[in-house]
Design brief:
Blueprint lengths: L4 H10 L5 E9 L9 E8 L2 E10 L2 E7 L4 E8 L2 H14 L1 H23 L4 H14 L11 H14 L1
Antiparallel strand pairs: 1-2, 2-3, 3-4, 4-5
Helix pairs in contact: 3-5, 4-5
Length: 162
Amino acid sequence: MGYKEADFIEYIKFSEEKMSIFEDNHLIDVWYKREEPAYQKVWTKGSERVLFIVHKKCGKWHIFIQFPFCRVKILSEYSGEKNACTALRIFIREKEMELFSFSQVSKYIEETKEKLRSGEIELKLIETELKERESSMPWLLYQHNFSIKIIMEYMNNIKEND
């Protein structure tokens, strides 16, 4: 016997355990073309959120993760969207804590960008904060594309271009 939707929503509101939710909708992404579809898939846990893009290219489906400054392919070569999403669900289950931290660091970068542009914060302070976060709760790096070094290069470019 299943729950009514209202009961489930009430349970989520008052549950102490944050629910891990994967939204497998067909939200069209900017990469979308009729012959090469691309859909955004969102994973949330509490207030944390990670955006994935499932994209068909050359007849195969590939999965990308959205970093604050780029997209990186994390899984690839699936025969169908359903297979790709199944693999993505497994990936999320295996990397849930790293994705949770990844989301927190992504938010920090977005918030800090504006402070850096306005001169409210210095690069050294950002690097120190990232090192502290990394030591307490490592985040998803994915082949070092989201390492402190890469993040600091990105932040340095922001500072230099303003």
